[in-house]
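Recall that a protein's primary structure is simply its ordered list of amino acids. Everything else, from secondary elements to tertiary packing, is in principle encoded there. The following example makes that idea concrete.
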Amino acid sequence: MAGQARSLESILRLFTAPSVPARGAEEKEIDPPSWRVSAAPAAGSDLGRHAMLYIGEGCNRIFLVRGGKIIWTYDTGTGWELDDIWMKNNGNILFTRMSWAGEVTPDKRIVWRRDCLKGEEYHTIQPIDDQRAVMAVNAPTPYCMIVNTKTGAVEYRHDIPYKNPGWVHGHFRRFRMTERQTFLVPYLSLNKVVEFDRDFHEIWRYAIDQPWAAVRLQNGNTLINDEYHGLVREVAPDGHTAWEISLGELPPEAQMIGCQSCVRLKNGNTILCSRGNNGLSPQMAEVTPDKRVVWVLNDWRELGPCTAVQILDDPGDPELPGDLMR
């Protein structure tokens, strides 16, 4: 794959420049965190292992971490909920807030914002080049759109097949364009993952309970988070399980509840993300292909739950679909 060899860690200086305000003009107060604890991090927990962009449901603050410290935050106001986030090559950050989606610069200016129509929800966004992003919209008739964040124009829109849509909130949490320009759709409430072409003709499907996220890996397999059973499964194109880890297999220091999303690093390791039971269990664990735990994050002094993370020291181009496996 012809993605960038560098990681985004090299641009993090943009977030600590003298021109970056302590608080942006459009930042909004967040609810007092119920998850904050004053105790030191759990033994063996290392905030310094990775540079990362970090969010979680139940905490409306975006965190940027480098060198074991939180170097930048952005507060997005009260209400629900931060579910998806990406740092682009220029440092701008795309994110969803359920009732709206936005793009914020390192110096805390909102340069694009799109609010949901009545009855809609935004839970997923993905940059596909330097000015366009793909989104799935939870709606009475759910749909996919490609929006230009420079102009605000919707350049593509197509309904997503969904029989008896019913409860809008339960439609999707992840939606990804693949390297082949297909759409990978985890149907959270319908217990299946389906791959579609651009005209939404079905290419592939896999049945699994409550798939919160699905990622097409560079080996052609698909990494799926089964929130109901607390497992992450790597599925080959023919449907067989190529790799799997259950949260119950983790050692005591890494035991966590719920794994909504995960990241496959270029070295083959997998990072599991957890909401962490309001401070009672870890937020993240990194496991090797042979399921050895090489890192645990259990630090609730400032960080909140972990729904999604972008590892910024892992090489890859966030604007090239499929180059970052998240």
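The chain has one domain: 8-311. The mean pLDDT is 95.
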